[in-house]
Amino acid sequence: MMLAAATASAAAVTLNALNSGFYNPAGTLTNGNYAIGWYTGNGGAELRDFFVFDLSTVTGTITGATLRLASKGPSTSGFLTSDPSETITLFDVSTGVAALIGGTGGSAAYNDLGTGTAYGSLVVTSAMASQTFYDIPMNAAGLTALQNSLGANQFAVGGTLTSLTRGATNEAMFNGTNGTLTRQLIITTTDSVNAVPEPASVLLTASGMLGALVLRLRRSR
């Protein structure tokens, strides 16, 4: 019974982003701000963002992960679109992290941030525009990539709006954001050493200890 309790444990680890930013099609980096989408006043350029995390402290088998992002800057509207919804999609990043955050990734980095293997997505509706945070769940491919990167000091994920129509109006998310806002990767792992026991596990452990105590008392009589 105590063995069952030990193997049923789970742990959640919250990692703050080491870096974030966005690239435009010309390959120009803006650090901190993680706006994505289409701004008509920005020469019609689409923006694609990225986030970098340190996975060196994560252990165990990853069972779930969510990218949690502040939805907007302190005094801006983060949902800049006349459409009823927009889809945020996360992608793998093959550009080296040093080049990515150093601004030397160029237009290749911009292309990289919105192509490749999708790691998850979130449909944001106009009814969600006032939310403080957007939680983007990572899919099986994203979880596999995280698992394979455990122990790494730097892991990057890219993001873009895959619902753009590039019309006469803005279609953008995370407007006016910066590097001081919430940019977290929340990872759930199965780790019997560092985990916080689930209630059922605690009950099983207590039952096992009680049974052992009763057996010991009977033998001492």
- Portion in beta strands: 25-35%
Structural class: alpha+beta
- Which range best describes the helical content: under 10%, 10-25%, 25-40%, 40-55%, 55-70% or over 70%? 10-25%
| N-to-C order of helices and strands | HEEEEEEEEHHEEHEEEH
**Radius of gyration, Cα only, in angstroms?**
22 Å
Our measurement of the CA-to-CA distance between the termini, rounded to an integer number of angstroms, reads 25 Å
- Note poorly predicted spans: 1-8, 192-206
- Number of discrete helical segments: 5
Shape: globular
Biggest sheet layout: 9 strands, antiparallel
| Strand count | 13
- The residue-averaged pLDDT reads 86
Secondary structure topology:
Elements: H1 2-7, E1 11-16, E2 19-23, E3 29-31, E4 36-38, E5 46-53, E6 61-70, E7 79-81, E8 85-92, H2 97-102, H3 106-113, E9 118-125, E10 133-137, H4 140-148, E11 155-161, E12 171-173, E13 183-190, H5 199-220
Antiparallel strand pairs: 1-13, 2-3, 2-5, 4-5, 4-12, 5-11, 6-10, 6-13, 7-12, 8-9, 8-11
Descriptive tags:
221 residues, 9-stranded antiparallel sheet, 5 helices, 13 strands, disordered N terminus
Would you mind describing this structure in some detail?
This protein has helices at residues 2-7, 97-102, 106-113, 140-148, 199-220, and strands spanning 11-16, 19-23, 29-31, 36-38, 46-53, 61-70, 79-81, 85-92, 118-125, 133-137, 155-161, 171-173, 183-190. The chain is globular and about 50 Å long. The protein is 23% helix and 35% strand. With 221 residues, the protein is an alpha+beta fold. The longest helix is centred in the last third of the chain and has 22 residues, at 199-220. The strands form two sheets. Strands 2, 3, 4, 5, 7, 8, 9, 11 and 12 form a nine-stranded antiparallel sheet that branches. A four-stranded antiparallel sheet has the order 1-13-6-10, with helices on one face.
